Structures are given as structure tokens and as C-alpha cells.
């Protein structure tokens, strides 16, 4: 994979909260700390990035396997366990096609990867190959920027998320915004947290309901949330734009407001966001 993926796009992105992680706190990584825990850290030791989903028992078990092997190897490599759904920018930047996917990063670049749950013996063999390939080749980054000091307010919010305390995490982000109304990191984190809280409560069967009854506005908006949670933003945007095209008045305003909220969950320079904004403008005018 070396040279095939550009990790620079993941430097200092907005925070992206997730649900209760399968990984222990010291291994869990999000978009907020990817640069520090993966890119910079990989200058010193290999970092094994494991993308998983709570919906996939096999991928959760793979995280457990990697944690055991990491403990056995006593710091020879780092584990970065990343829940896919709340960290879609990472998933897209790494061009992940399936969950689970495991990628070794060394010297700031992807080195090797595998997809799918694997037996522990096979994972051990893969890890040994990674360690052999990087032995003596990582010299650190002494001239690079010092890691940023973590803001304890964000740490408190992330700790609450790690413990499954969604209400506490939301309150922590709201407290930051009460002190600093212009804090973009807290705004982004709160937006994504509220989306996840809403979307994870929706029955995925609503997609079929919305397809069968296009006039059902609430079903259409719920279906778009499900599609976005499943990492299909283009489908979610297309669904709401179709609603905007065939509605008027309050219904159109409600659909447009929801679409703009979903846009805000992404980097506005993302091609699929730019394309959807153009389609929205055409639908409106």
C-alpha cells in the first residue's frame, strides 16, 4: 500500500465521536488524535491501524486478538483501534473496502494490510513480517513538531464516550462551547455526536419503507440517516434532494434543513459534498 494512500488529509481534522469502543481506551483512536497517535507515532514504531464496527462480531474479536498480541510484544508496535462509523474521513482516506481492515503504518506511510477476521496465528505471522520489514528503519522524527498538549475538556468528553456516557459527552462539548462559542472542534464533535445518537436509534428497515412510500417525508429523512451511518453519504444526499424536488412549503424546508445538517458532518471540500450542493441548488432554483 505504500504510496497508494495519502495520509496527509487526516492531519488535524475535526473531532469525530463514536459509541462505546470495542478497544480499551489507550488503544482507541479517532479523527481527533489520528495525526498524533498514528502518523507521528509511526515515525518511532510501527502502528497497526485496525478499523472495526460494533455491528461486526468478527471485527470486535479481531481487536481483542490484536490487544493480546500487543500486550505480548511489550511496546514493539502500537495498536490504533478505530471504529469505522464515527470516523468516516479515516475510512475514506485509507480507501477501506471492508470491515474489519488492518493496516500497518510505518514512517507515516501505509506498509501492508489485510481484510477480514483472521485466526490469531495468522495475525501473528503478519505482525512478524511487518516487524521484520521495519526493523532498524524507523529513526524517529526529532525535528518534527511536538505533539499538541491535549485539552482536558476534550479529554473529559472522550472519556465519557469511551464509557458509553453519551449524555455526559454531549454536556462536556456544550460546556466548551459555552466558554468558547467559536470553537470549531467542539461544534464538529457535537454535531457528529447528535447525529450518531439519532441515527443509531433508527430501525434500518425504514429504508425499505421510504422506498415503498416516497411521499413519507419522515421515513425518507430517517432512511437518509441510516444510509449515512452505513457510510453511503451519496445515497443519503440523493434521497433528500429527491424529496426537495417533489415537495414545497414546510416539507421542502424541513428536508433542506436536514440536508444542510448532514453536509456539516463532512469536510466541505469533499467531492461528494460539492456535487450534492450543486444538485441542491438546481433542485431549489
TrEMBL record:
Region (Disordered): 1-28
CDD domains named in the record: ybbN
A Pfam family hit: TPR_20
Occurrences of domain Thioredoxin (ranges): 9-132
Record InterPro entries: Thioredoxin-like_sf (IPR036249), Thioredoxin_domain (IPR013766), TPR-like_helical_dom_sf (IPR011990)
Gene3D superfamilies reported for this sequence: Glutaredoxin, Tetratricopeptide repeat domain
Domain of life: Bacteria
Protein name in the entry: Thioredoxin domain-containing protein
